[in-house]
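[Discussion] Sanity-checking designs against the backbone

I'm trying to build intuition for which residues belong where. Below is a structure token string of 261 positions. I'd appreciate it if someone posts a full sequence so I can compare it with mine line by line.
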């Protein structure tokens, strides 16, 4: 698939009076691709995600162009894109049952009645491989583990069948085993539904294991973007080379071979 989903030209963001948080980013995102945004803390990754999702604070100044050829209009939150954050606690409402929060998105955006929306919520819990979905429907967020809460957040994010899924450090708070499970889950879901995935992480090794392309950010600038294999084997910048060198496991053959397939 080579249709352009989103086209960014000279995208810049400034918060208040500070330095630019994003500085003239040129990038095309293909429909159906899995794109990782990597870079150190403060490089502008979350600002990039929030700019795409139109979730920047009001005082933020945005410059440049953002085009959505596939949609024909800016994406509507919850409908055209789903957002998953590092801390699922921040996106889940503590006083609503799991069933209620997932069903709400399906009801509002797909025009389902509550009964249909509940049925869809339970089905979604199955899709995110939640054990005992029927029980979890009646549970509250605090009764679940961090990994389970992240599965719920993913189910809620895809409830309205969005075309774009944005995961901002969605696995950073989880231990490595759960992290791998969640990445595998995301990978499967976006493949099955043909969603475009924006996977934001400071961990280039984690991203390289499953995305199609990597975009490297540093100090508000896009340093380089390219297919995983070429970025790993022939980085265009010293900065990217340093990022790769700092992950011993990235230089070993299995991951690169996997990225190439
Ligand atoms: N709401 C805000 N108000 C003011 N400045 C902000 C705000 N959010 C981010 N910034 C600034 O914008 C720059 C980019 O921050 P951003 O959160 O996009 O980076 P990041 O790459 O996502 O970092 P991290 O890996 O720590 O999440 C930083 O200098 C940060 O201090
Ligand atoms: Ni961030």
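Best answer:
Here's mine. Compare freely.
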């Amino acid at each position: 698939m080579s249709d352009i989903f989103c086209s960014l030209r000279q995208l810049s963001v400034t918060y208040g009076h500070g330095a630019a948080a994003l500085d003239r980013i040129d990038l095309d995102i293909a429909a159906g691709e899995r794109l990782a945004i990597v870079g150190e803390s403060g490089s502008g990754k979350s600002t990039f995600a929030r700019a795409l999702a139109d979730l920047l604070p009001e005082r933020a100044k945005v410059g440049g162009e953002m085009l959505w050829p596939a949609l024909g209009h800016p994406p509507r939150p919850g409908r055209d894109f789903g957002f998953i954050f590092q801390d699922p606690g921040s996106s889940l409402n503590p006083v609503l049952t799991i069933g209620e929060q997932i069903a709400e998105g399906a009801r509002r955006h797909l025009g389902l009645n509550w009964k249909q929306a509940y049925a869809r919520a339970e089905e979604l819990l199955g899709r995110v491989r939640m054990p005992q979905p029927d029980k979890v429907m009646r549970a509250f967020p605090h009764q679940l583990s961090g990994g389970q809460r992240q599965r719920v957040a993913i189910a809620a994010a895809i409830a309205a069948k969005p075309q774009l899924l944005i995961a901002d450090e969605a696995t950073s708070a989880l231990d490595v085993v759960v992290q791998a499970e969640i990445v595998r889950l995301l990978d499967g879901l976006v493949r099955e539904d043909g969603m475009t995935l924006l996977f934001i992480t400071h961990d280039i090794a984690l991203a390289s294991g499953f995305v199609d392309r990597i975009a490297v950010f540093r100090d508000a600038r896009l340093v380089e973007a390219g297919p995983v294999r070429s970025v790993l084997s022939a980085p265009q910048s010293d900065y990217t080379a340093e990022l790769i060198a700092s992950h011993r496991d990235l230089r070993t053959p299995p991951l690169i071979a996997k990225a190439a397939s």
